[in-house]
Amino acid sequence: MNDKPLNVSVKQAKLLGNSLRIKIISQLLDEPRTAKQVADLLGKSGGNVHYHMKKLFEGGLIELVEEKQFGGVIEKYYKSKSKWFNSYGAEPIDPVLKDDFISNESTALSIRLNLSRDQQDQIKEEFRSFLEDWVKKTSVNNTEETQEYSIGVKINSTKPKSI
Question: How far apart (Å, rounded) are the C-alpha atoms in residues 12 and 15?
Fold first, then answer.
């Protein structure tokens, strides 16, 4: 799996604004799978997962890597192109993280630190690992009632960019 973030367009970024699609991508990181296999792993309906995988494929975020004839059915195996995605410009990758989005529940955490380049790389990797762990924890079939949240980590230098 390529750990390098994939640069995506605003249109592609919008496809990532859904927790089920993130869970699907997480199931397609290490090995190619069919929509049925992913649905079984997530405890979701096959039709719903198939629909979202089709959108991710059409959006260029997952790729078809193999087709197998199984009886009278062609099984399509997909793999994620990346586990991290970058969008550029003023728009965040998830519109829910925009400053003007009014949420019924929100928590903002911030802190300033003096970091070396190595420390910045280390903290970025630790946040990625932390978020990946939470995707795994929440990907299992859960009988509790849940609500979807958007979580973003932004690391900015306090030094303005030179024009």
Answer: 5
Q: Angle of helix 19-27 relative to helix 35-42, nearest 10 degrees?
A: 110
pTM (predicted TM-score): 0.72
Domain boundaries along the sequence of the chain: 6-139
Give the pairing type, strands 85-87 and 6-8: parallel
Strand 62-70 relative to strand 6-8, pairing: unpaired
Local structure of 66: helix, strand or coil = strand
Architecture of domain 6-139: Orthogonal Bundle (1.10)
Model confidence pLDDT, tens digit, residues 17-48: 888 999 999 999 999 999 999 999 998 999 99
